[in-house]
Write a structure and sequence with these properties.
Elements (H helix, E strand, L loop, with lengths): L7 H5 L4 H8 L3 H11 L1 H22 L3 H11 L10 H31 L1
């Protein structure tokens, strides 16, 4: 294999794994398999996530609204304050639909009793 022993840092900081694979004269599949085996892929992902967050923080400090929104999404705060999440809304709608169904069934049952009497 043409992957150098000290290639870990170069792999982690690589902007293009395709270019790195060509530089090292290995296939991309081989490089990815080796990186997965060594655990470099996780470090590569974390490195670039940290880099992206750092760039967003810099842009947000310059009052870039788009960067602020993206930073909030990255931090898990993507909806306005006070607005329920989509899962909570769909759960509430399902509960209301069930109540409406049961109410309609009860009305139909009571109506059948009054017709019998």
């Amino acid at each position: 294999m043409n992957i150098p022993e000290n290639g870990k840092q170069k792999y982690i900081e690589a902007k293009s794994l395709v270019a790195l694979a060509k530089e090292w004269n290995v296939s991309l599949a081989t490089l990815e398999a080796y990186a997965n085996e060594q655990g470099w892929d996780r470090e590569h992902k974390l490195y670039w996530q940290d880099k992206a967050i750092e760039m967003l923080k810099n842009a947000a400090s310059e009052d870039n609204i788009t960067a602020v929104r993206e930073l909030l999404k990255a931090m898990g705060i993507s909806r306005p304050v006070g607005r329920p999440s989509k899962t909570e809304v769909t759960k509430q709608i399902a509960i209301e639909a069930k109540i409406e169904q049961e109410f309609s069934a009860d009305i139909a049952r009571l109506a059948s009793y009054t017709k019998q009497a």
